[in-house]
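Quick one: structure tokens for this chain, please?
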Amino acid sequence: MQPSPTRLKLPNPYLSAAVLSWGFNFVAIKILYLGMAPASLALSRFLVMYLAMVPICLFAKDSLKYPHWKETGPLLLIGALSMGVYMVLFLEGARQTTPGEAAILIATSPIWTLLLEVVFKLDRFRWSSLIGAVISVVGVALVIGPIQTGRETTWLGIALLALSALCWALSVVLSKIHGAGRSPLQLITLSMPGALIVLIPYGLMPMLNTSWVSLTGNQWLLFMHVALMAGAVGFFGFFTGVKQVGASGAMRYQFFVPPFAMLSAYLVLGQAVTPWQLVGVPVVLLGVWYASWARKEPLPVIG
């Protein structure tokens, strides 16, 4: 009896779509900044994304009824951090860095999630987490390279993106504490209104002052990509993929986001990949991979 041939395993379509949309998102944001301020993009993106997430949740048969007020407060705090503070730091940081640098800095968030879980006593300390963090920091230093006057990247942009990765990690840890019994889509959608306490004072006037009629057709397409593809559809695709291949399998797809962001920046913006970045990207991903692999447990990721 001959053994059956090995079946070719095709990439998961939902996770592949999420990775492609997240990778290109860094380039789309840079182009959109030619016609609108980061603050305007933050609030307008949120409004469109929220209007899309509600029917997606209903389609998935997830209840949007808020629980007792003692549980509602923590949910809104998660939204204020993940969709509010994080987005402000991310969008302002992305304005002062290249798409590839922004993508790789954000990709370190799983490392900080591991470390914060120790702080919140959700997990015990592991040397693999600390070693992985050190490896990733070395890789980030290589990706950024020596900053020179006149370059697009600034130290402030780097600091903002590093803080945004830490802020996202904090929101992930809090969601583990307060999100029990809820699907990821339901948790995200219920928490989103909490972001308005941050986004309204930050983005209301810039959004109202934006000349929306002067945006080109390409800019409108890019805005829809940022709000819908990288936002609502990206989250839906990722969490659907998690159900199909598991969180551990979904984590492997996240490794393709920074390289695709750098490739998109090269093809669309003409930004060359530096030798430092070619060395630094795999070092960062090695650190994230080692920490999660040695822990024998998958980590949450973002887009």
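Residues 24 and 261 are 6 Å apart (CA to CA).
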